[in-house]
Amino acid sequence: MSSGARVVIAGASFPDCSAAIDLLRESIDADVADATRLSTAEIVELLPAADALMTDYFPVNAAAIDQLKRCQIICRLGVGVDKIDVAAATRAQIPVTYVPDYCRGELADHALALLLAVARRIVHYDRAVRSGTWDYNVPGVFRLAERTLGLVGFGAIARRLAERVRPLGMHVVASDPYVSDADVEAAGVEALPLDDLLASSDVVSLHALLAEETASLIGAAELERMKSSAILINTARGGLVDHNALVAALASGAIAGAGLDVLAPEPPATDDALLSFDNVVVTPHAGHYSEESVLQVQRDGAHEVMRALAGQPLKHVVTGLGATGQ
């Protein structure tokens, strides 16, 4: 199949996009513009001629969409689409797609790693030993067996995390308004309302999408409901948590610690108060990353673009356009 279509790849955080570029060129002879290292102004200049736009973190706002004169697809090279104005794309009759399944295992692994790092105070011990202190007596280290993990959101990543903690002997509960209690319990997990989950969990792990209704889902009131011995894990989106409320809860001892792969904003300021807590572990939005996942997301995204350019049904559509065969 040959198309010669113009594909713009913008705002990617990967070391390079050769997996997508090579696949598009070899499969459909696409004219690929690698704009991953260009400025916003330079990217905007490329948009009017784009038949397809692939993006990781480039903000595809209404102004950018206005420049897409012939675009047949906006493909987000990742899971969330909060950097894309989906409503504006729908008005412009451009389908928005995403790649939901390329890093589910990695994110579940990362959430578990943060859980263990905070609960077992791994980073504290490492820093202490490197500074010459050989002492394991640290308050707040608890046995995970028979403790409760609360999952806020019960999608594919949360389900994988539930599977990973079972061998540790943890009891798992979940709250998700979009998943029936019967479906949660069919997975061997107890379904609870959010308030009850927060009050009963020793570890609360966030797995919700960021939307208007979930912004600051975990605020001062929710943190106050948690046990003072509980820890918060967030590998989903930074905006799910009220930053100032979390700082206050950690400072007052309302919760015992946090493991955060996502923040709002990113990256944090060097004087961000969250970075001053010894009981907080922060990673640089790395939960999705593995050598395999960065190849898969590019290839899966390229295949979705090829389907759009060929007029074929799309697999993972956020808007209703082209959604046949989801």
Task: Please tell me about this protein's structure.
With 326 residues, the protein is of the alpha/beta class. 34% of the residues lie in helices and 14% in strands. It is elongated, with a radius of gyration of 21 Å. The chain has helices spanning 18-28, 40-46, 62-66, 86-91, 104-119, 122-130, 156-165, 181-186, 194-200, 220-225, 243-252, 291-309, and strands at 6-10, 31-35, 52-55, 74-76, 96-97, 148-152, 171-175, 190-191, 203-206, 231-234, 257-260, 280-282. The protein has two domains: 6-102 and 290-309, Rossmann fold; 104-282, NAD(P)-binding Rossmann-like Domain (Rossmann fold), CATH 3.40.50.720. A seven-stranded parallel β-sheet has the order 8-7-6-9-10-11-12, sandwiched between helices. β9 (203-206), α10 (220-225) and β10 (231-234) form a beta-alpha-beta unit.
Identify the notable features of this structure and list them briefly.
single chain, 326 residues, alpha/beta, Rossmann fold, 5-stranded parallel sheet, 12 helices, 12 strands, 34% helix, elongated
CATH class category label of the largest domain: Alpha Beta
Task: Write down the oligomeric state.
Answer: single chain
Helical fraction? 25-40%
CATH superfamily caption of the largest domain: NAD(P)-binding Rossmann-like Domain
User: What is the arithmetic mean of pLDDT?
Assistant: 95
Number of contiguous helices: 12
The unreliable regions are none
Beta percentage is 5-15%
CATH architectural type of the largest domain: 3-Layer(aba) Sandwich
